[in-house]
Amino acid sequence: MQTIFVMIKCRLGEAYDVADNLVQRFEEVSEVHSTSGQYDLLVKCYLPDSRDIGHFVTDQIQRTEGVADTFTLIGFKAFG
């Protein structure tokens, strides 16, 4: 299993709609947190090892209505 974190900038006023949409549409999405700072949302996703991260982010997350920009981090090991 692969863990990725996708930081999302949303179009103005659309962060809550984007968060709800991601949780409802994608079983890979585990958690969505609203954040302060440069990005509006932090999305934690679990992907099967066979799943291409790039395709998931570009074909699914980035094409979600209201998403303006993304920054993806790949998790290696969870502690605790």
Describe, in plain words, how this protein is organized in 3D.
- The chain is an alpha+beta fold and 80 residues long.
- It has a single domain, classed as Alpha-Beta Plaits (2-Layer Sandwich), CATH 3.30.70.
- The chain is 25% helix and 39% strand.
- The protein has helices at residues 15-25, 53-61, and strands at 2-10, 29-34, 41-47, 67-75.
- It has a four-stranded antiparallel beta sheet, covered by helices on one side.
- A hairpin with a 6-residue loop joins strand 2 and strand 3.
- It is globular, with a radius of gyration of 12 Å.
- The model has no long low-confidence stretch (mean pLDDT 97).
CATH architecture: 2-Layer Sandwich
Q: Care to count the β-strands?
A: 4
Number of domains: 1
Q: Multimeric state of these chains?
A: single chain
